Amino acid sequence: MIEAENLTKRYGDKTAVDDLSFTVVPGRVTGFLGPNGAGKSTTMRLLLGLDRPHRGDARICGVHYGQLPAPLRVVGALLEARAVHTGRSAYNHLLCLAQTQGIGKKRVDEVVELVGLTGAARKRAGGFSLGMGQRLGIAAALLGDPSVLILDEPVNGLDPEGIVWIRTLMQRLAAEGRTVFVSSHLMNEMAVTAEHLIVIGRGRLIADCSTEEFIERSTEKMVIVRSPDVERLTGVLVGEGAKVSPDGDGTLTVTHMEAPRVGELAAAEGVVLHELTPKRGSLEAAFMELTRDSVEYGAGAGTEETR
């Protein structure tokens, strides 16, 4: 379990994390979302003891990260996959990490195979592509067979096959009862990977709920209707309080009314329907809606996130 309690971190006059509290429980993938500059990376650094909060507390399995006697056996972290000795082979990089925690060579061989680097394990890490470097970073996070995983943008640089692989891996690890906490800017990927979301903006908590609930409460439900008699159907629906937008070719987008009610009204009026499809909102749309007022760096700002 991961616990953040009233975490606050400032850099000069900028508050990167502002009285932030949340809990990440085992058994599910928890996504960590926020706009650029929201404080996600700073929060992860606070959890791992790489920065000290000005106020508040961060605990993993009930203790501070620095109090763990063999941290790699409890927490696997991926913050910067390219933070490796470029002159070492991938295998020797992992072996050096393993030796600091009393982890044997057998486990090194296992994670090399698990992440698909068997053929490149003896090559210098400095020559790795972005995707291969990402796989090496994931191997390092898994080295101690940890119960907690903290992963910052784990799909970065991976090809479509690699993205499916890491998604499946995270879900399998969570199903085994581990705590999986993952940040990403890829909304479509988070929508199919994470069961629960923690969303922050300007260092403050915006949402802590299931992915389904986040989407449902943040986006307007729509119904796609196709009929050869759109004019009469439009009149019926508008008369009952629906908002109707024509999309051409006999297709309407209906809001403010559920699909069953649309079908009932059409049937009562004898209007033929060729299509009646409820359309679920997207995580991307929900995210954009809920974080609109928390965007610090946008188009034209001329500035990029530094923390």
Describe this structure in words.
With 307 residues, the protein is α/β, with parallel strands linked by helices. It folds into two domains: 2-217, Rossmann fold (3-Layer(aba) Sandwich); 220-279, Alpha-Beta Plaits, CATH 3.30.70. The chain contains ten helices and 13 strands. It has helices at 40-47, 90-100, 105-114, 130-142, 160-175, 187-193, 211-218, 230-239, 259-268, 283-290; strands spanning 2-11, 14-24, 29-33, 55-60, 75-78, 148-152, 179-183, 196-201, 204-210, 222-226, 243-248, 251-255, 275-279. It has a six-stranded mixed sheet with strand order 5-6-7-3-8-9, with helices on both faces. The radius of gyration is 24 Å and the shape is elongated. The chain starts with a strand and ends in a 17-residue tail after the last helix. Mean pLDDT is 90; it is low at 299-307.
Q: Could you provide a short overview of the structure?
A:
The chain is an alpha/beta fold and 307 residues long. It has helices at residues 40-47, 90-100, 105-114, 130-142, 160-175, 187-193, 211-218, 230-239, 259-268, 283-290, and strands spanning 2-11, 14-24, 29-33, 55-60, 75-78, 148-152, 179-183, 196-201, 204-210, 222-226, 243-248, 251-255, 275-279. The longest helix has 16 residues, at 160-175.
